[in-house]
């Protein structure tokens, strides 16, 4: 059984694993898997709270479509595009959090990066081919998740 609460060391290791796999993916395919920290963070979220991971994916999809709509009316490129996408994701994630906080108070205990990760995924979806981004993000996240879960199940990683 995998615990819902992980130690800070295990969380840092999960992010580090995601960074290593993201870097390998980027260097071999020239595709960013939704940002460098995204696969590690999503894998950690899958280990601790599947509902939160599903919500992050939903917010990323909504942010992608909102950005495409916004690009029809505003010239967005470079840093302006990045700022607009991440800000849109943070606003959507905050809205979802405020709407669901009373019904599910434990859903948002300490998910600071969870507000930014959907924006990072959406930013890459806007910049790169859609299918390539989805495949690379999923593959790197699953690789990180498998290594993290194996380490937890074998007792090689500390749990809280």
TrEMBL record:
Q: Which domain of life is it from?
A: Bacteria
Q: Does the keyword Membrane apply?
A: yes
Tell me where the transmembrane regions lie.
Answer: 46-69, 81-100, 106-126, 133-157
Oxidoreductase listed as a keyword: no
- Which Pfam families does the annotation name? Caps_synth_CapC (PF14102)
Q: Sorted alphabetically, which keywords does the UniProt record give?
A: Membrane, Transmembrane, Transmembrane helix
* InterPro entries xref list: Capsule_biosynth_CapC
Query: Coiled coil located at which positions?
Result: none
Protein name per Swiss-Prot or TrEMBL = Poly-gamma-glutamate biosynthesis protein PgsC/CapC
Native source species: Streptantibioticus ferralitis
- In the record, what lineage is assigned to the organism producing the protein? Bacteria, Bacillati, Actinomycetota, Actinomycetes, Kitasatosporales
